[in-house]
Amino acid sequence: MNHQSTAPDRRLPAELHGESFREVFRRHAAGVAIITATYNDVPFGFTATSVASLSAEPPRFSFNMARTSSSWPAVANTNFVGVHMLSTENEGLANRFARTKDRFTGDHWEAGPECVPILKDVAGWLVGRISMRLSFENNAVVVAEVVAGTIGPDGAPLLYHGGSYGTPTATDYVI
Hints:
The protein has three helices and twelve strands. By secondary structure, it is mostly beta strands. β4 (52-56) and β5 (59-66) form a beta hairpin.
């Protein structure tokens, strides 16, 4: 049986580079988090959408980052990192860590376990001992095993989609 699609042909070029590649991922909603670390007694941090749960036993998470990031020297040379899950209440923090260099001025953070900067009033945070850094060209995948953490106030998760922040909306679903 021949199944032909009537949908328009929207295939992307064989080589997805630059803008085409970015456009595909703009259509994928991702949770927003902030990664923090301390290096030479200086706090570092950046906004990330690549955080993932790697395993529950033992609890591990991973994230990706550019090795050209101003935070890479801290992540590359420390043993512990923090990951902070954000709610819609934390959009200001997400912008601060994504768009400014003034990330740690103020009382929105404190030194936590293993001297990792811990952000206040986030949906939850974990501190992990880095167990692997996999460098690939100008990027890295970092894996960390959880050594501490807490659940923060409940709230709608902050998502990044289509170049802006948002939150999920409930849909009616009937089985």
